[in-house]
Amino acid sequence: MSTVLTSEAQEQLNHIRYSRDTVHAHSPAIQKLFNLVIDYVDDAEKAGKNGTKVIWAGVPWAMPLIYSAGAIPVAFSEVGRISGQEAITVSEDYYQMPAETCSMVKATAGEWHLRKQAGTSITRIFGSSSGCEPYNLAWEVMKKEGFDVYTSDVVYRAPGVEGERYEELVRYFVDEIHDFNEWLTGSREIDKESLHREIVRKNYLMRRMREIMDLRLQHPFHVKSLGIMYLMNGLTHYFGKPEEYTEVLDALVEELSGLETDEAERQRAIPLIWTGGSGQEFGIYETIDDAGGSLLGFVSSPYTRDFPEDIDPVESVARFQLQSQMAGASIYRRHVIEQQVDRIQARGLILYGYLGCSFGSVTREIYRDYFHNKGIPSINLEGTFQVGAPSGQLLTRIKAFIEMLS
């Protein structure tokens, strides 16, 4: 199914094409990446029409399991890329969501509604019950609208939890993974051979991403902000095409490895860390590029360590999640940010969140104060999850922030 794009979504699509054809004309790898971005949802819809299991999925830890079952996950982030003001209006008027509700929740609920009315083949939703309370309400709303919704209880492991208590968490999580598999496939039995292959693939791709991020320290402008944002997003879901996404990473490593270091380019680049969600207001990324900024560090996606390959693959998924997640109090995640600051010698932080997310706004203030006291300046941005042009004031703030760093 290919729905008629709203004017906002069409403009966003044109921005992606411009970045592919003009901004990244020098990089065949990033051009192929943007082709995957453009085709992701429509190709998943077609696969669903042809009998493949396709689900809306907002839980990163489950992606290897989803692929091992022969299904295709469509990430929530892509709902934002195809939704616009019409989806927000549906959520506010039809579902009576308050105007101050997080734009991510309103955009996804509204877009799902619109696509269901248009005959979408993707009618199953997998989310997390611990994501946020507004989403918990949205899950119930979607169930009443006829969607098949499954939510998982993400297990949090606080620092210091070791020994038997940690093993209890692993056992609980393993049981939950089987529950999810039963919802997805109709059976609690997991194809462990297939899951192991997906874990090996995931590890390979994360290692490739680490290579790319290291090489970008020598070539900070080869991949611009929009390109690296989508490259990082794809590490979670592969845009529904694991083999083609793998080819993109392999090709990009080859591209970067074949470049001669331009010391003037390195000196000109202003190293920045992005933490938080990825905004759909693409003008933000263009402004970062124009001001000389380079997004060389990310905190939103764990890719710095591998899944264990020498243990039961279901247990491997559980242990990877429990040992990787940065959940809980914000003081735990700030250590991850500090590691990125040291790795890239960051001059500044971009703290990004969605309008209406009160939890995120508090977290960003904690980070801002903490890193200000350590001499690392930051900018706190709030944007929309759905597509739309950023305000002139927002762009002016970003430009002024980066120019200050230079």
Automatic annotation (TrEMBL):
Domain of life: Bacteria
InterPro entries according to UniProt: FldB/FldC_alpha/beta (IPR010327)
Cofactor(s) listed: [4Fe-4S] cluster
Any Pfam family: HGD-D
GO molecular function: hydro-lyase activity
Family to which the UniProt record says this protein belongs: Belongs to the FldB/FldC dehydratase alpha/beta subunit family.
Protein's recorded name: Dehydratase
